[in-house]
Amino acid sequence: MKTSKFLFTTAVAGALLMSCSNDDEAPDDVNEEEVITTMTITLVPEGGGTTVTLQTQDLDGDGPEEPDVTISGSLSENTTYNGSIVLLNETEDPAEEVNEEIEGEAAEHQFFFEVGIGLNLNVAYADDESDYVSAETGENFTTTNPVGLVFTATTTDAGTGTFTVTLRHEPTKPNDGTTGDAGGETDITETFDLVVE
Amino acid sequence: MKIFIFIVFVFLVHFHGLSQDCTDILSGQVIDYHDKTPLEKAVIQIVGTQNIVETDDNGKFKILDLCSGEYELEISHPDCSTVFIEVNLEGIEWVDIRLEHHIEELEEVKVIGDAVANKTNSAIEESLRLTTLEQYSSGNLGDALKELGGVSSLNTGANIVKPAIHGLNGSRVLILNDGVRMQDMEWGDEHAPNIDINSAGSISVIKGASALQYGGDAIGGVILMEQARIPSKDTLYGKTLVNGILNGRGGNITSELTRAFKKGWFLKGQGSYKRLGDQETPDYVLSNTGIKEIGASLQFGKRLFTWGWDARYSFYTSEIAILRASHIGSVDDLIRAINSGEPQVINPFTYELQNPRQEVTHHLGKIKFYKRFEGLGKWNLQYDYQNNRRFEFDVRRGGRGDQAAIDLELTTHTLSSDFKWDAKEKYQLQFGLLGRYQENFPNPETGVRRLIPDYEKYDFGAFITGEYRLNDQLLVDAGIRYDFSRIDAQKFYQTSRWEERGYDAEFQDLIVEDRGTQLLVNPVFDYNNISGTVGFKYSENDANATRLNYAIAKRAPNPSELFSDGLHHSAARIELGDLSIQSETSHKISLSYQRQFKQWGFTLEPYGNFIKDFILLEPTGVEFTIRGAFPVWEYRQTDARLLGLDFSSYIDWTKNWETEHKFSLVKGKDVDKDAALINIPAASLRNKIIFSRPEWNGFEAFLESQYVFRQNEFPENLWVFSPADQEDVLLEINTPPNAYHLIAAGAKKGFQLKRNMKLTTSLTLTNLLNTKYRDYLNRQRFYADDLGRNIILQLKLNY
User: Fold this and answer.
1) How many Å apart are CA B39 and CA B55, to the nearest integer?
2) Taking residues A27-34, what's their average pLDDT?
3) How many angstroms separate the CA of residue A48 from the nearest CA in chain B?
4) Quick check: B45 pLDDT over 70?
5) Domain ranges, ordered by start, for chain A
6) Where do the domains of chain B lie, and which CATH numbers do they carry?
7) Inter-chain contact B626–A56, Cβ cutoff 8 Å?
8) Average pLDDT of the residues of chain A
9) Where is the secretion signal located (chain A) (predicted)?
10) How far from each other are the two terminal CA atoms of chain B, in whole angstroms?
11) Which of B417, B626, B627, B630 to mutate to test binding with chain A, by most A CBs within 10 Å of its CB?
12) Are A17 and B413 in contact (CB < 8 Å)?
């Protein structure tokens, strides 16, 4: 019975396929180099006083844990603060500063500062693209749209409200300074509840 | 459907005849190959002469007064395929001729591309179907299949089209490419089949799991792409099609050439190239929607009636740009996109394919051997190899745009064999076995956490199917299949995700290594599935048929349903699989009633599909990350019910005027939640008027209306907290777009250039009125309108 012999052979071959030995090596870790885990905004008052630090930290990236938001204290009335932003990727060891990448692609990035009702705070950009060296050309950018890695924030009367900081990738530039007009993709966004007293 | 072309080898006994004055005699007997019964009324003709005889009731014949020499005989019989044999005549010769008396056919509920008036001649159906495929030569598989009732598609833009049968797609739809089950990562919504439509000679769709020989998990159905038959005679023929496509400002070219020999040898080569730039809606350019596609295949072998083999290699590669505006960051970006009603990014037309885009390459190699055993049946043995490599490039920071964000390599080996007993007139049995090994390698170089982990998968399947003809009217078929599959994966979970999912309670023993923030786990899951089918076909005559089929099918979860975890950048959503997902079980009952009258005919196909533990992916909420809030889509299991109806009919008004009408409806329900299922196609109605004058060089013109209703049954939308608005807003992620009505028209005409060279020109216009519309089953409906008017000019040259 030739036929059954053929089928039997096939079955055996199939069984052999099934019983491959399993000596897998563990797969390599993926080095997540593009993640931004931490944004620290430092507000230094002109003429001295208490520095205020705002931070959002999300160590598991797109994992389930929500970002941890800390605000070191309240702002003072009628004060001008010099703001600067530091971005970190803390999944790497040591932590990597992401600012370099933003600076190298300054023309494709912009921070937006949106102040909610009740918070008396005026924000102005203190940098533009030409302050930074393009990673692509090695030369300073020739365009002068704002970027927002450094800025000034000036308080007036006391009040409370939200202060939302958003980093957009590939927004429309120039824009009117609002996220609605700029489009692009959100790389970071955090809303801080601030008090001016 | 497969009618085998074959040659019968004849064993001749040589007599040393003395006569030279044309008194030789050739006699013999014609018998059925399978059951060896003599065949009456077979016609034997000596090729090139008027010498014709018929066999008597014992299947015997005699031709007198022949000269010695070589003759070619043509033997034909009404129930059989025609055979040619060569005879070397010297004196008196006796030949035994065996004819193939079976028309091998799939007896499942089959979709025919058209309610064809005369079912007796299957060739008409075939050529019609080839005609339809050629019409879609510039499109893709999913688009062409939508010509069939009950077949829809899930799209990501116009170039990524996943076929859906009776509302189900992806892993629930098997695609067999010339006998090879495609293994091309059908898991994701934006993973279209990696197939060049021009490589198929015909495509059939089986709407359900009753074709057990192809797999037991075809809960949606099976798509069979088959090769055109190659005749066993000395011939060389081919064709070339060129399409100019207005929308996208490009075109495609496809060409094939076949060389066949009388001895059964054949060689066939085919190649296609397609290139489109940005496509356009009525109002704007869809920036970054171009495509580049190359397909090629080579097939060769030897096919005789008693045995044969063939080998095939096919290559497919495509680079598809993904609508730039559909690449978003977070919920706020999504809300903005949905509310604005037009894409956030519109650039001037370009042929460039920029990020986001995908590059997929698929290699398929197959070798198949068959042998017939006289009076018994046919044995097949096949080995196939597939390699699928998928890159997805994303808009990335820091010059990483050239580094793929997803890089997967899927390798599959399959060995399968089956035996078909068809010796008996009344019944047939088929028995088969399959073994498969598959490996997935996600490249860690991407710098992005793996969406699909490293895994090895082992499959083993065995089936037995049979059919029994009770009488001329009634045919019963049944089958049972067993499938074992084991998936052995190695995956990194974020510790936070592992705990959030509650896996630390249930699956803690799978952990191999704890790396602090990440856990390496090694899940090994086994699935044992039994599927079965039973049904009958009752036909009083050729003009009507009733078919009833019940199929139980079980499908093991695929890797994305089990292991997805994290941000799927191209979809801007967090997708979460579930390790505890088990196989889903479908019970499908389908009824088909077909009637043909003198000038019109119709087919009515109601069905019910009751799926226990149906696996679905749906939006469940949002998660907050430093990048903002993301919609979370989770896989879950529920009991589902799909009820539907396909109707098609044709009317021949006059010799030249014909109309076709098609209606499809499916309703999907989540029984546990008492709510609508997500992504169920809306009802659609198609009407077509066709004018044909064959005597004007095959002139044909048509006007078609397609009305797609609004899907009024959809899952609830979500309320999500919008950081930008500092309040909960309604995320209208499930709201379907409005109904739409599209008009298409076309005409074609042929020109006989030489005796065996024919040019056919055709012009097709789709979305003739440049209607603005969006389709519920296109994932880009949130961001942009669908395609505007398109004009396709096709030149086809047969030689």
Assistant:
1) 7
2) 85
3) 31
4) yes
5) 33-196
6) 20-101 (2.60.40.1120), 114-222 (2.170.130.10), 223-396+405-413+426-455+473-798 (2.40.170.20)
7) yes
8) 88
9) 1-26
10) 26
11) B626
12) yes
